[in-house]
Amino acid sequence: DAKTTQPPSMDCAEGRAANLPCNHSTISGNEYVYWYRQIHSQGPQYIIHGLKNNETNEMASLIITEDRKSSTLILPHATLRDTAVYYCILYSGGGADGLTFGKGTHLIIQP
Amino acid sequence: DTAVSQTPKYLVTQMGNDKSIKCEQNLGHDTMYWYKQDSKKFLKIMFSYNNKELIINETVPNRFSPKSPDKAHLNLHINSLELGDSAVYFCASSPGGLAGYNEQFFGPGTRLTVL
């Protein structure tokens, strides 16, 4: 049961903004949208999360539509080191539950 | 000062053997996890421990036995290894306890190869 849908792969030119979409049309009211990424041969890395409002941190911005049925992760100035698989995950647990990873989007930053 | 560390990084062993993977976190987190990433790169939760108590056991064969001697450590012991156990195993930790909050910190992974 895939709760999120992401494109399998995307390309982006180095220095440009990378916009990664995620559809979650069946999201529940108490589910947060989390983004993680996994650089080749490394453990996954937390990027950002949000519930309703748009969020920004030092790594990225998260834009959630008003109906919360989709979101976009924005890497403002992509570098080659941003090449990774990006996972959009819904979470509503009590803080000690595992995350359910889907297939993610393989983002390739082109020089 | 690695936040979440795992040993060994690589483990090659024969079918039928018993092996352990160790995980330690120095973040002061209450919750620790084990995930398995198979050859198709699917990442799945196996276990979750909160304050040394088992919270989640996701349909994992009972040949896999996690052990948490204290909050900072969660080791994974695997009995009677099978070919299908070959995968990368990731340990993770999170502060735990806050509804909806689950920023997890992952270790570098242990690549297990069963021959």
Structure summary:
The complex is a heterodimer of chains A (111) and B (115). Chain A contains no helices and nine strands. The N and C termini of chain A lie far apart (36 Å).
Architecture blueprint of SSEs:
The complex is a heterodimer of chains A (111) and B (115).
Chain A: E1 9-13, E2 18-23, E3 32-38, E4 45-50, E5 55-56, E6 61-64, E7 70-75, E8 84-91, E9 105-110
Parallel strand pairs in A: 1-9
Antiparallel strand pairs in A: 2-7, 3-4, 3-8, 5-6, 6-7, 8-9
Chain B: E1 4-7, E2 10-13, E3 19-25, E4 31-37, E5 43-50, E6 53-57, E7 64-70, E8 73-78, E9 87-94, E10 105-106, E11 110-114
Parallel strand pairs in B: 2-11
Antiparallel strand pairs in B: 1-3, 3-8, 4-5, 4-9, 5-6, 7-8, 9-10, 9-11
Q: Can you tell me about this structure?
A:
- The complex is a heterodimer of chains A (111) and B (115).
- Chain A has strands spanning 9-13, 18-23, 32-38, 45-50, 55-56, 61-64, 70-75, 84-91, 105-110.
- Chain A is mainly β.
- In chain A, strand 5 and strand 6 (61-64) form a beta hairpin.
- In chain B, 0% of the residues lie in helices and 55% in strands.
- In chain B, strand 5 (43-50) and strand 6 form a beta hairpin.
- In chain B, 36% of the residues are buried.
- Chains A and B meet through strand 3 and strand 4 of A and strand 4, strand 5, strand 9 and strand 10 of B.
Query: What ranges of chain B have pLDDT less than 50 throughout 5 or more consecutive residues?
Result: none
Major β-sheet strand ordering of chain A: 1-9-8-3-4
Could you tell me the radius of gyration of chain A in angstroms? Answer: 13 Å
Number of strands of chain B: 11
Measured distance between first and last alpha carbons of chain A: 36 Å
Distance between the termini of chain B: 34 Å
Q: Strand-residue fraction of chain A?
A: over 45%
- The secondary-structure class of chain A comes to mainly beta
The greatest interface here is: A-B, 26 and 34 residues
- Estimated helix fraction of chain B: under 10%
Which descriptor suits the 3D outline of chain A? globular
The tally of strands of chain A reads 9
| Overall mean pLDDT of chain A | 93
* Backbone shape of chain B: globular
How much helix, percentage-wise, in residues of chain A? under 10%
